[in-house]
Amino acid sequence: MTLLNPAAEGLIGRQAEELIGEAFLNLLTGESARADRALSRALQRCLGSSEVCSATALFRTPYGPSAVRLTIVPSVSGDEITGAVLIGRPFRGSEEAGEDLSVELLASAPTDFMDDDVNVMLGDELARVVDVLDVDLAAARLISPDGRPMLVCHGMEPREARELLSTRGPDGLLLYQAVAYADNIISDKDADGGYPAPGNITSFAAFPLHACSGSGGCIVFGVRDEASSIRQYSRILQILCNQINITLRNHTLNFELKNRNTQLRGLYETSKAVSTSLDLNEVMQIIVGIAMSLVDAENCFIFELDHVTNKLRILSMMTQWAFDPTMELDLNEGLVGVVASTRQGILAPRADLDPRARQVEGTPDTPSSMIVVPLIINDRMLGVMSLEKTPGVPFDRSQYELIELFSVHASMAINNAYMFGDLKRTASSLQMFNVLLTHDVANFNSPIHGYLEMLLREPTLDERQNRYVRSALIQSDNISELIADIRQIIAMRNNGNGWKLEPTDLVPVINEALLDISANAVYEDIEVTFQPSVESALVQGNSFLKGLFYNLLSNACKYGKGLPVTIGLEACDKRGSWWRVTIEDRGRGIQDEMKDRLFRRFDQLDTSHAAEGHGLGLSVVAELVRRFGGRVRVEDRIQGDHSQGSRFIVLLPRY
Q1: Could you tell me the residue range of the domain that residue 393 belongs to?
Q2: Is residue 228 a contact partner of residue 203, using CB atoms and an 8 Å limit?
Q3: Domain membership flag for residue 581
């Protein structure tokens, strides 16, 4: 001791002269001077870390022990701690002491967890209470929000803590069970409290922890000093336990919120994962892996339902067991068969005790928990998903609901993979048919067409023979045009992303189409005239422009009854700057009800109209015009009289 002011002299009841130079701990009662008591620990913290601390101690005075509440402030010279200043206040009564300690405890009581570890939080809180109140021990028993049993203690060994919490009372209930039905249980060794304290514990107070998951939450504080009783702190401890209960409740809510957020994030990641692939095997592996991670399962099976045989077969699995993967289950066989039959999921915390369960050969005969859910899409049963884990914490209702929700995503992904597989097989078949049509049939038709052209020019044919040969040649030409149209459609689809346009003059393009038409033996006798009003007409086009006009010209020649066909080209400023191309024939024309459907795709036309030959060729024209940014329509050559022929009009934007 280096200094005492008059107030300190009055508090201790001794003069400064006799205390200066005295070892400070010699001024305390033997119990308070122990190295493991609150004041000694507070002094060590203050001198070691410059921390301002508080503690209660009993001073030896001529009139007996005097309880003093001390605030300890480090004394610093430069960067060195040279000592401490102790500021004290006496406790004049247990009521005043209780109020002071209550304010100090509650002012620093935690309102929320800075850490997700409940064990750490409770450990720190118990140590703080023991230090502030200068009691000897504290212990807490609870079930954490994730279902784990916990025991936290301070000032006593876990074995002693379990023994204290399991003290049996007069009603036969253990202490941690009985306190759930009372505000508190307080017992002194010499009093007839009904709860004998183990070891050298002389007094203890137990309080319920109502905010924890499950039952059996209890917190207990005690002393070992024969002269002390925990009763003087009961009101403070009751308030403090209420505060801890609120904190635990908040933590439980936060835990549940984080858990739900994790589940939602998991489902979001699931949606992304199952949509990254359409390959059935890859989708199955993604689904199995995510399902197991969502609920910490050890085994997962996806069964496919065969609607013809009503059998369940393993489609995909991830398991630690070795058994026959070709096994089949009947409807109502085992939990999987029951779910397939009833279309209702099952949560089995102990599947090994469920009479509906069936043990599969090759799996161990151990306790297990199972979640089994149906995989349904558009009311169609695809199969069943089963998850299992062996001894430990069984699956709970929240995990079942999570898998039930996940099964909807899984069902959609599996169904999409099935449809994608069907599309691949259909596309493969169509590719084969395209090759047969555009290559093999074209090769077969080419010599036939050539022979018919030669025969048509044979001078020895009479009129009837000439007509027959011409008719056959027209049909052969129709085959050639159909194949050309299909090739053009395939080329447009294959070049969809690489469709490039460049300045192109319509006049030479139309002239090239005219040359191709005149070189065709079927149309060589038809008079086709091109009457452009301009010498040049630039548009944004490419090599497909020639095919567009060839289609329209061959259509006009084919249905023009051999009469002249006229092509016009002029500037048109309707709705902007356009080039207008007209192709007129004098054939049988097109009825009004057919005009609106003329440019639709072939598969949308009726059979009779398709048989006329307009469908596919004109659908190619419509698609090309659309890609060039233009418009196409058909009208009567003589307004109001469709029987006088047709006029096809193509509008293309000017370059």
Answers
A1: 277-424
A2: yes
A3: yes
Tokens 């201790």 sit at which residue?
A: 12
Of 226, 257, 288, the one marking the end of a domain is: 257
**Nearest CA among 649, 644, 584, 647 for reference residue 622:** 649
Q: How far apart are CA 109 and CA 128, in angstroms?
A: 9
pLDDT at 606: 40
Q: Is the Cβ–Cβ distance between 564 and 527 less than 8 Å?
A: yes
* Size of the chain in residues: 655
Max CA distance (Å), the chain: 154
C-alpha to C-alpha distance for 157 and 137, rounded to whole angstroms:
10
Contact (Cβ atoms closer than 8 angstroms) between residue 570 and residue 546 = no
List, in sequence order, every residue forming a beta bridge with 317; answer none if it has no partner: 301
Phi, psi of 258 (to 5 degrees): -65, -40
Find all residues with CB under 8 Å of 226, minimum gap 6, and list them.
Answer: 189, 202
Identify which of 264, 263, 285 has the alpha carbon closest to the alpha carbon of residue 274.
Answer: 285
Which stretches of 495-543 are DSSP H helices?
506-518
pLDDT at 437: 66
Looking at the structure of the chain, the number of domains it has is 4
Counting DSSP H helices and E strands in the chain, the numbers are 18, 21
Sheet holding 528-532: strands in order across? Answer: 528-532, 565-572, 578-584, 641-653, 631-638
Report pLDDT for 192: 60
3-state SS, residue 597: coil
542-564 burial, b for 16+ CB within 10 Å, e for fewer? eebbbbbbbbbbbbbbbbbeeee
The answer to whether residue 179 sits within a structural domain is yes
- Tokens in use for 508? 């030479």
Helices 544-558 and 463-494: crossing angle in degrees, nearest 10, is 150
pLDDT the model gives residue 346: 94
Q: What is the DSSP letter of 632?
A: E
- Same structural domain for residues 557 and 603? yes
Task: Kindly state the DSSP code that residue 394 receives in the 8-state scheme.
Answer: P
One-letter amino acid at 380 equals R
Distance between CA atoms of 615 and 622, rounded to whole angstroms? 11
Distance CA 315, CA 325 (A): 9
Q: Is the residue at 311 inside a domain?
A: yes
Q: Are residues 495 and 418 in the same domain?
A: no
Kindly state the tokens that stand for 403: 């898998």
The segments of the chain whose pLDDT lies below 50 read: 92-104, 106-109, 111-115, 602-615
With beta carbons less than 8 A apart as the criterion, state whether 578 and 652 touch. Answer: yes
pLDDT value, residue 270: 63
For residue 418, tell me if it sits in a domain: yes
304 and 370 in a single domain? The answer is yes
In whole angstroms, give the CA distance from residue 654 to residue 627. Answer: 14
**Whether 133 and 82 share a structural domain:** no
Contacts of 101 (CB under 8 A, 6+ apart): 56, 69, 132, 133, 233, 236
Distance CA 122, CA 87 (A): 30
Q: What is the mean pLDDT of the chain?
A: 81
Give me the pLDDT at residue 216, please: 63
